[in-house]
Amino acid sequence: MDSSQTNQKAWKTAMSHVRVEHVSLSYLSRPGDPPFTAVEDVDFEVGEGEFLTVVGPSGCGKSSLLLAIDGLMPVARGQIAIRGQPVKGPGRDRAMVFQEFALLPWRTVEENLWFGLELQRLPRQELKAAADKYLALVGLTAFRRHYPHQLSGGMRQRIGIARALAVRPEILLMDEP
Length: 177
Description:
By secondary structure, the chain is of the alpha+beta class. The protein has helices at 3-15, 62-70, 109-119, 124-137, 153-166, and strands at residues 16-27, 36-47, 77-82, 85-86, 94-97, 171-174. The longest helix has 14 residues, at 124-137.
């Protein structure tokens, strides 16, 4: 690679908000079996303020790729970087809306929304303000005291979206929202 190519690559990496570079993801199955490759040699970048949609058939590794970007799944090969820094695990700069609702059944809608904010140790007043704002945004203010089992699937998914937005992430990862 000549110096102009090196400089161009450095500039592109600096401008990338998310960079997925030759990433492969594998799962271990039973002991003695070879690993199952879920994703192989995926390469893309997403700039600040850009949206990217990953489309493919069921089982092609879309969810695995999102988990890896979120830092919840290790990369077998390649690298994922955010603002030029390798992803080593989950971070406050990212939030994930899971394909399956991932709501805590013993908590109300409002308390589920608070979950990520409680991990940041925000005061109760800020938790309530966030609930007011994000429940209104997803049209579920009237259901704040309900439990997940009392809601439709679409309503549960909207709570997951509100919970992810409430932590004000730089990067929002959404798995079939």
